[in-house]
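Predict structure. Chain length: 466.
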Amino acid sequence: MGIEWSEYKFELVTLVKLGWPMTVSVLLYALMYPATLAFCGALGIEALDIASLAVSVFQLVVVPIENGLRWSCLTFLSQALGSSKKKRAGVIVQRSITAAVCMWIVSCGLAVNCAKLLVLIGQDAGIAIGSQTFITILMPGCLCVLIYRVQMAYMDCLQRVFPTLFMHLVSLLVCLGLEALFVFQLGLGVNGAALGLCCSLCLLPVMMTSYIVISKVHKDTWPGWSMRCFLQWGEYYYNLFPSIANQLVFVSSSEMGTFVAGYLGKAELAAQGIIFQLFILTMQPCVGAGSAAITRIGRYMGAANYVKGKQVYKVILALLGFIGLIEALLMLALKDVIPKIFSADEETTEIFSQIIYFVIPYVFVIASAWGHIAALRGCNFHNTCVVIALVALWFIGHPIGLSLTFAVGIGMLGLWSGYLISSVAWNILGLVITLRLDWTGVSKKVSGSAERETDVEGFITHDETR
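Prediction complete.
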């Protein structure tokens, strides 16, 4: 019993050590976008509208791709590093960078046509054209951030998390400095803000590449560039596309809430905006701890050590449940203070005070559910994660929420009733599937896949496969 408890304690300490730097890193990266909006807001309403619309499109198109890349890379890399053929990790990094370039080409196609698409859905033509220019300036940064997400996943799996935190901090400070220079000193306006953001995004992979080369942290897992990165794309995309789809499901869910709130009224939209910013903050610890859990579970499954994998799953469930409880209690204690930080409007504050009692349990349930999702991702069940999210959000929660909002006529209370129901359904589905998971069989399958890079191993030299 003492040995088992010490093992759980070790995993808990490891998850906390890995999780909190990942959390801060993600938070620092997320702050770059509201900081950009703040600079544009100082230029006037039109500039803020252009930047807000451009950032929304960027986050709708690019962020799901970059997050999907990272989630799939975390799974593949951790499993490869847990196997006996650790140098396969370098091949996976190369394959992921190639995929990032392909995804960037698709994003460029959307960027050069986004003005027409925005006008078609009712946006002002001048704002739409300005947003397209903003996004076009961001495109080099888009490519860089996609490549950086791959490098970030690689470093996370190597448990080198503090360099990533430092790089995000430097990039944020550079972003603030360049935007102040371009917007106010050089008078470049909105385009100056876009240029400053682009430069700071481009800085991230440059710093990461420099660190990898100088520290030689890659020497045991990445011997050099290889043509093997063009093999085994079927299995890779089989996990990458569901990871991206999973992010799109959540982004579309959030955008749906914003659209419905805007339809109900300005005060409702303002209250929803406050809740959305609050939710982003509360999700960062879940993302950080969940990412750490994926790397740990993936390593153990790659080594066919399903017992350790199950231990990490139990620990992350308890840890995220505790984090969710603390966040819920803090929100309950500060429920009267939070809306006043963002808005002085009494109607907005009143609406916030009504729906906060739905948001508090929602945050706790979502945090708890992240443990199931981390376990499924660590075991290569990205398709299952998409199905869970799709069913919970769009087949259970939102139909009920929209019916309560419009048919019953209870407005925002109905909308957030749907969100709460979807979170409970998401948690239950994840729990049921994870409890029924054949850890032994999955570990054998994952380990076998990690040990076998491709079905055409015979065409590759013996030295390359070592």
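Summary: The longest helix spans residues 2-41.
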